Amino acid sequence: MNNIKTRTYQFSISTIRFLNLLPSKYLFNVIGNQLLRSATSIGANIVEAQASSSRKEFINYVQISLKSSNETGYWLQLIMDSFPQYRSNLNSLLNENLEISKMLGASLLTLKGKNKKQN
Questions:
Q1: Contacting residues for 36 by C-beta, under 8 A, at least 6 apart
Q2: Where in the sequence is the domain holding 86, given as residue range(s)?
Q3: Residue 17 and which of 42, 61, 73, 88 are 20 to 30 A apart at CA?
Q4: How far apart are CA 6 and CA 2, in angstroms?
């Protein structure tokens, strides 16, 4: 989990830096706020998971992290499709978010004792 913790922290920083590039207009502020909340929530919930007092609580926080990552992907894609001038800035964020989602999903399958052979 330390690798995912580091990657989500760096992802939060990259997202903050991207948001700092956007103009200070109402539309960007509203969408940017949603993106900021969901992107930083991914890592924050990983930290909470590591401080969990039970396996069930740990799994719950990892699930919340995955949901936040999915939401983050929505906001990133929405900005990309609405404002194509930011496409080059968003490609790396979208790719990293996808990788983080895959890591979280795989972790959840392992934690829940499920794997591809059982499905």
A1: 15, 16, 19
A2: 2-111
A3: 61
A4: 6
- Please name the residues in contact with 43: beta carbons below 8 A apart, sequence gap of 6 or more: 5, 8, 9, 11, 12, 65
CA distances from 83 to 27, 50, 57, 71 (A): 11, 37, 39, 18
Structurally, the chain folds into a number of domains equal to 1
Task: For 23, list phi and psi in degrees, rounded to 5.
Answer: -65, 155
- Of 18, 8, 63, which is closest to residue 40 (Cα–Cα)? 8
Closest CA to 69 of 106, 99, 112: 99
Instruction: Please indicate, yes or no, if residue 118 is contained in any of the structural domains.
Output: no
Average pLDDT of span 13-26 = 93
Residue given tokens 């903050």 in the structure block: 16
Contacts of 100 (CB under 8 A, 6+ apart): 4, 7, 8, 11, 42, 69
What does the pLDDT look like over 28-66, one tens digit per residue? Answer: 899 999 999 999 999 999 999 999 999 999 999 999 999
